[in-house]
Amino acid sequence: MSDRSALLFEKLKELSIEVKTYVHPPLHTVEESQALRGTIPGAHTKNLFLRDRKDRHFLVTALEDAEIDLKSIHTLIGGSGRVSFGKADTMEAWLGVRPGAVTPFGAINDRDGHVKVILDEDLVKHDMVNAHPLHNEATTSLKTQDLIRFLEAVNHPPAILKVSL
């Protein structure tokens, strides 16, 4: 377990959030995740680290099979003009994660509030949600409401918006 993951799990424990973590080989894509995860219950996610023309950054978390229109999502999330994917080094500096391990748990590392977190409305309809614990060699399951509570506790109250098609 990385030092950052240890801090994450300490925070979850401090908040009395129950989690279950499943260790697995490194996963880099949704497709790899679908093939290897077995029967981990709950909603599985995909995460997009985006930036707009004004260099504002967004972390969009949706169901793994959600279709998201990158040409129009800026109108839904408050972006200025079309969005593109954020730079990997920026994501690592602010969220403490690398491509392939993007997760809403990364908000714990964004102490200066650079990134706006958005949860898709369809995702929050599920009781349980799964996300990487700051690395892609495990999946952590928790109640969706506890994920929201965690994000609020680390000063990233999520916007819950219908961003999937």
Automatic annotation (TrEMBL):
<dbReference type="GO" id="GO:0003677">
    <property type="term" value="F:DNA binding"/>
</dbReference>
<comment type="similarity">
    <text>Belongs to the PRORSD1 family.</text>
</comment>
<dbReference type="InterPro" id="IPR036754">
    <property type="entry name" value="YbaK/aa-tRNA-synt-asso_dom_sf"/>
</dbReference>
<dbReference type="GO" id="GO:0002161">
    <property type="term" value="F:aminoacyl-tRNA deacylase activity"/>
</dbReference>
<dbReference type="InterPro" id="IPR040285">
    <property type="entry name" value="ProX/PRXD1"/>
</dbReference>
<protein>
    <submittedName>
        <fullName>DNA-binding protein</fullName>
    </submittedName>
</protein>
<dbReference type="Pfam" id="PF04073">
    <property type="entry name" value="tRNA_edit"/>
</dbReference>
<feature type="domain" description="YbaK/aminoacyl-tRNA synthetase-associated">
    <location>
        <begin position="24"/>
        <end position="150"/>
    </location>
</feature>
<keyword id="KW-0238">DNA-binding</keyword>
<dbReference type="InterPro" id="IPR007214">
    <property type="entry name" value="YbaK/aa-tRNA-synth-assoc-dom"/>
</dbReference>
